[in-house]
Structure formats: C-alpha cells, structure tokens
C-alpha cells in the first residue's frame, strides 16, 4: 500500500467532515459536525456493479475507502505493517461479503464495521483487554449522576499539542480509543457508531465521555511533567 498515509500524518483537527464517498472533507470549525449526506448515484452504481462481481468496480471501492480504513487500523494498532495487513484483511472480508450488503446503513458504516471486527480480533489475539460497552455505562465517582454525554468537548477540540494528543490517544484502553477515533477523528455520529458496534447510542456516548475524561487527565499530566522538566 504505497499510498497509505504515514503515521505522523495525524489530523490537524479532532473532528473531520466527510464527503459523499466517505473520504475526508474540508477542515471544519469547532462547532461543525459531520452529517449524513445524500448517497451519490454514481457511487451506488459502482457498489451495485461490485456486488454483481465486477472486479473493476470493486477496485474503485477500494480506491475510495482504503485510506480511511487504513487510518482507522493504524490508529488502533500503532504499527504500519500491522495496519497494512489489517487493511488488506478488511478488504478481503469485504470481497467475500459484499453481496450481503442490503443498504440498511450507509456503505461506509457497514465497511467500517467489517474493519472494526478485523481490528478487534487482532487485539484479542494479542491479549489486550477491551473495555466492554456495558462497563462504559457504569458510573464513576468523578462523574456524578447528572453528567450529560455527547456534547462537544472544547478542552479537547481547542488548540493543543497534536503530538501530545496522539500519545494520549494511543495510551487509551482499546475500547475507549475506538469510540474516540470513530467519533472525534473520523466524524461518525453516535447512531452510526452504535450500528457499527451493535451497541446502544447511550453506550457510545458514555464511552466517548469516559475517553475524553482520560484524555484530559493524560494531557494535564503531560503538561505538569513538561513544566517540571
């Protein structure tokens, strides 16, 4: 995958918009949120041909979506070679299962679900513990009962050191990291994430909230360490 992005090519923003083909769009402001766009008829026609066994159409789908799938894999495993292997495996899974896509969700959402399953299987093979989505709903002392989930976190979306944020995200437990990447980096909405992970919207919001709490604390700790040095 010679055109895969370098791991140092981190986003200059936390949230990204998406074009109709699922590719990253223009940089938004702090309050911008990704929205579900009307499917492009040309994209739908390419998908239909790929489902019918057209190899050229499948190659077009690969070209449209490979960078985002690779980006997700790389951010989850932190290793270029492993991310490339996982991306290839995700598209092998797509090749096997594309005929089963029925359009109940956006194609990009469905494809990300395939890729996430590949990544999570790899993490389990490596023996990494994954925070369960049910566990994410358990209250913690610092939250209190009236905490609201899912609002934009200006502490994290402000002008902070990008490399420090990358390190903090990489140190998150895999379950928290996945939700944060899907929502705050890739720009998926909670209903889309819930569809990908087969969980409730409330669980997705809770997991994101806890990921942000951990990130804020990690960034504060990094700043304190820098001030002492």
UniProtKB/TrEMBL annotation:
One Pfam family from the record: Sigma70_r4_2
Name of the protein described by the UniProt record: RNA polymerase sigma factor
Keyword set, alphabetical order: Sigma factor, Transcription, Transcription regulation
Entry similarity comment: Belongs to the sigma-70 factor family. ECF subfamily.
The UniProt record lists the keyword Transcription regulation: yes
SUPFAM superfamilies attached to this UniProt entry: Sigma2 domain of RNA polymerase sigma factors, Sigma3 and sigma4 domains of RNA polymerase sigma factors
NCBIfam families reported in the protein's UniProt record: sigma70-ECF
Organism: Candidatus Sulfuritelmatomonas gaucii
GO molecular function terms listed in the Swiss-Prot or TrEMBL record: DNA binding; sigma factor activity
Keyword Transcription recorded: yes
Domain RNA polymerase sigma factor 70 region 4 type: 163-215
């Amino acid at each position: 995958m010679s055109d895969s992005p370098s791991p140092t090519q981190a986003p200059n923003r936390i949230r990204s918009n998406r074009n109709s083909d699922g590719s990253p769009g223009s940089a938004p402001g702090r309050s911008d949120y990704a929205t579900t766009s009307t499917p492009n008829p040309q994209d739908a026609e390419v998908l239909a041909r790929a489902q019918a066994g057209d190899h050229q159409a499948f190659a077009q789908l690969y070209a449209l979506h490979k960078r985002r799938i690779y980006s997700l894999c790389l951010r989850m495993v932190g290793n270029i070679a492993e991310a490339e292997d996982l991306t290839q495996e995700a598209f092998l899974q797509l090749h096997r299962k594309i005929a089963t896509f029925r359009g109940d969700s956006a194609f990009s959402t469905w494809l990300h679900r395939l890729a996430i399953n590949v990544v999570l299987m790899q993490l389990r093979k490596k023996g990494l513990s994954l925070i369960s989505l049910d566990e994410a709903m358990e209250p913690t002392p610092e939250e209190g009962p009236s905490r609201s989930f899912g609002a934009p976190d200006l502490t994290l979306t402000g002008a902070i050191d990008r490399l420090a944020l990358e390190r903090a995200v990489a140190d998150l437990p895999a379950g928290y990291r996945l939700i944060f990447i899907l929502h705050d980096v890739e720009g998926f909405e909670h209903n889309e994430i819930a569809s990908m992970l087969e969980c409730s919207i409330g669980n997705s919001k809770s997991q994101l909230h806890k990921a942000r709490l951990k990130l804020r604390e990690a960034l504060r700790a990094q700043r304190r360490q820098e001030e002492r040095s």
